[in-house]
Structure formats: C-alpha cells, structure tokens
Design goal:
Elements (H helix, E strand, L loop, with lengths): L7 E8 L2 H11 L3 E8 L2 E10 L8 E6 L12 E9 L4 H10 L6 E5 L2 E7 L5 E6 L21 E9 L3 H9 L3 E6 L2 E5 L8 E6 L12 E8 L2 H13 L8 E2 L3 E7 L5 E9 L24 H8 L6
Parallel strand pairs: 1-4, 5-8, 9-12, 13-16
Antiparallel strand pairs: 1-13, 2-3, 3-4, 5-9, 6-7, 7-8, 10-11, 11-12, 14-15, 15-16
The chain binds zinc ion.
C-alpha cells in the first residue's frame, strides 16, 4: 500500500463558456482565480484554476471552457459530485446566496451524518457544500463571502460506478481506508492526509456517462514532490496500470492513468506551485502560457480565447 498520496490535488472539469465559468467560481462561490492559462495539450482552449489564495493542493477546481460545448450526460464511470467544505452553520447563508444568484438544483442532503447543500454549476455540474467541523484551512474571501462562511477547499469527490469493487481496491492500494458503507455509498479516506482526503464511491446501475460541458474530466491526487510521484508511478505500473510518463504542467508535474471504473486519475506534485511565474498578489490576472506555446500568444488572444471580464 502506498503512503505518498495525501488526498485530492485538483479536480478538472469542462465548461461551455469561460466568462460564465469565471463568474460562477469567483463571484458566486467566492474562490480566487489563481491561474489563467491554456490547456497545454490543446492551447486554443483556456485552462482556468480557482482555489484559495495560493491555489493550495486540495482547494483547486479547474476548467477547460470549450465555447458552446454540448452538455455531458451524467452516468457511470465518472466523478459525479465534487464537494466543498464550509464551516458548521454556514449552509443557511449559502442557500440564500445561491438562491439570490439563481443557482439551480439546490437540495438539502445528509450523508454519513454530515449536512450538505447540493447545487448545480453553470453547465449542470454537480456540486455540494458540506458543513465540516474543524477545517483549519484559511479561506479566500471577498465578493461578499466572509471568512465565517467561505469555502475552505474540497471535502471530497463522489465517483459513480457500476461496480465499486475494483475502484475501491485501487484506492486502498493508493493509501485510502474504507470508513463506512451506507446504502449504495462507500466512504474512504486517507489517514493523515490533507483536508481533502475523502472519496465516496456510489454504486448504481446506469449507462456510462457521456462527457461534455459540466462533466469532470479527471481528478488529481496530491503527492509532495517528484521523488514520491516516481515511487507512486512505479508501484502503479508494477501492479499493471498503464501510466503516462511524468508531464511538466508548469505549476506541478503530472502522471495520468485510467481506473478500472473508467475515471481518469492524475497524480500531481505539490511543487512548484502557482506562484512560480507570478506574484501571489497578482495570481490569475495575466494570461500565462507555457514556453512551448508562447509563440502562439497573439493568435490565441485574437482568435481563440474569449476575453474574460473580471
Ligand atoms: Zn489535472
């Protein structure tokens, strides 16, 4: 069993528009945009990152906005719901705020004794706010969201699967422990992990998901550094997983592999971080391009990347 993985690093989804996506995460949820760059593998599409002040691993929701992309169709083999942690007692405030912003899909829920508020993102993305006791992370504040209610980062993701057995086994190999199963949901966590150390596996018999706007593209797990990432890569490959080589994403190094349940997993390093190429005070403001795409800047800005008004 691996001990290098500490919980979630980031969750990456697809959107249909950059402006609506930006507005939802910054002006409604009150997160900070910590990076405005492009999809390194398809640079005509933005890659937008939202999180706490510095984009601490375990707080970072990221998006590829494909203009006018069709919505995904929810199903099995995907990350269903991404849950953010908020302080105890914060949900009534959030319910009023999300109602004011005409956010869809609001629903009061209880899961494993926790009080949650489910809601939809701008493309029908499935989210929840979860009241969490003692989450000591310092939140980003502003846009009318004060520290007593602000999002602390991720609490968990929920994968929807036809059969949770193989994915559960994989997660336990990655360092997770099974906490509890209720009805069709199994909860796992990493002891001693970061504050985003929970994964729920929901077993349902439904057709496979079709990815599109509002779908999670992949979920990334955090390791401290490149040495630990190589240890994880070797262990996964020795177990039979097909893992990509280490890829430089400028703000972290990444490896990817497909899970038995169909979900794309990434293992990403906590180093070097989002302040690698801009000051913490100005994170996310300028369009940052990786060296290999810098020569495309004028073309990308004039033809492909919609201007985002903050
Ligand atoms: Zn990623």
């Amino acid at each position: 069993m691996l001990t290098q993985i500490k919980g979630l690093h980031h969750v990456t989804s697809m959107a249909s528009g950059a402006q609506s996506n930006n507005d939802f995460f910054t002006k409604v949820l009150g997160l900070r945009r910590v990076k405005k760059t492009v999809n390194f593998d398809a640079p005509d599409v933005y890659h937008l990152y939202y999180g706490d002040e510095t984009g601490t691993p375990g707080t970072v929701m990221t998006y590829f906005p494909f203009p006018r992309a069709a919505r995904g169709r929810p199903g099995t083999g995907e990350v269903a719901t991404t849950a953010f942690s908020v302080p105890l007692g914060a949900l009534p405030w959030w319910k009023e705020r999300l109602t004011t912003f005409d956010v869809k899909g609001l629903k009061d829920e209880t899961r494993f004794g926790e009080t949650r508020l489910g809601f939809d993102g701008p493309d029908g993305d499935s989210f929840a706010l979860v009241e969490t006791d003692g989450d000591a992370r310092t939140p980003w504040t502003g846009n009318g969201v004060s520290a007593d209610v602000a999002i602390r980062g991720f609490q968990s993701t929920d994968m929807r699967l036809r059969d949770v057995g193989a994915s559960s086994e994989l997660l336990r190999f990655m360092g997770y422990e099974t906490l509890e199963t209720r009805d069709n949901v199994t909860r796992l966590h990493i002891p001693g992990g970061n504050a985003a150390n929970v994964i729920d596996l929901t077993q349902v018999s439904a057709p496979p998901a079709a990815q599109g706007a509002g779908s999670v593209h992949h979920v990334a797990f955090a390791v401290e550094d490149r040495a630990r990432q190589l240890e994880v890569r070797k262990a996964l490959m020795d177990t039979g997983y097909q893992v990509t080589p280490v890829i430089d994403r400028d703000y972290f190094w990444a490896i990817y592999f497909r899970t038995p349940g169909g979900v794309l997993f990434e293992v990403a390093t906590n180093e070097p971080g989002f302040d690698r190429d801009e000051d913490t005070a100005h994170l996310g403001q300028a369009l940052k391009l990786p060296t290999q795409h810098e020569h495309l800047r004028d073309q990308l800005v004039s033809r492909y990347l919609e201007r985002i008004h903050d």
